[in-house]
């Protein structure tokens, strides 16, 4: 993360994760730098977060590694590097721990706490099956649905019951039918977490959990409305009551930054990284990450990197591959490419301005789409407006 400041400022660190304070295999003091670290240190009007900062000498840049959890630098999905200007034109790299990407969105809490305020650029790399400077990580909304019915004996007097399992099954099937009218880039997937107690009791309570994904917040807003209608229809058909509760944080889609991507690819190629084609990038889909929310606040780069295995993410085989010695070469090579890109931004003011302009244009485009989606969803639009979308 890059920040410019004309005044000297003591770096602060606020709590929330585990930090590996090392560059390569060297401890920071072995490199002749002075380390400041504050766990659960507080600033006025700020929530605690954790970081490690390496102030530089007047004529040089200092570096630090930022990670969430105990994974090696550059390999964990939460690893990022922050570069700050604490004096005029004196760069400084700070490591910021970003835990809880998979559940809750730790980076969103850090955004709200001010951890990304006044920064210029953010970097993060994610392991994958290929090398790409950018993949279209999509917006995501998770929802928990609870149906409340009435228990009764399933054989003796089933007519006295209100079947919450029927509501859950209908909701699941409603979504299956909806898929025919879903855009190819939309995704809906979920599970029935609670389907009843015993076969001879009409279930009085069921619970489902679903993830909804779309390429933009605008599309996600439209998809969410359609899916919630499916849940409500199931309750109406069975006579159940329904409770629909969204997750704490929506994950935004990652905004691309072409200037950062171009420089990163140039640096990566110098290190022997072979990137997938632009067609594969444009036609491919990825998952979702709270880093997307960060890219709505500050320009960001979120490349993917090969770790020497064709195993798929979120599998036991990938977990084993990610912890292997072979993967460390690819992780460190990616970290080097990120560091080289950071140096380019630091020492090339024109590049930084291009990065900022890319960010401004993408932000305007995305916010314009989101505002239009909110207008479309105003009460009174009716079925006709829904059909037109």
UniProtKB/TrEMBL annotation:
GO molecular function, one term: dipeptidase activity
Peptidase M20 dimerisation domain: residues covered: 143-236
SUPFAM superfamilies reported in the protein's UniProt record: Bacterial exopeptidase dimerisation domain (SSF55031), Zn-dependent exopeptidases (SSF53187)
InterPro entries in UniProt: Bact_exopeptidase_dim_dom, Peptidase_M20/M20A_hydrolases, Peptidase_M20_dimer
Spans annotated as Disordered: 1-51, 366-389
Any one Pfam family match given in the protein's UniProt record, by short name: M20_dimer
Basic and acidic residues: compositionally biased ranges: 28-42, 366-379
PANTHER family: PEPTIDASE M20, XAA-ARG DIPEPTIDASE
Name this protein carries in UniProt: Peptidase M20 domain containing 2
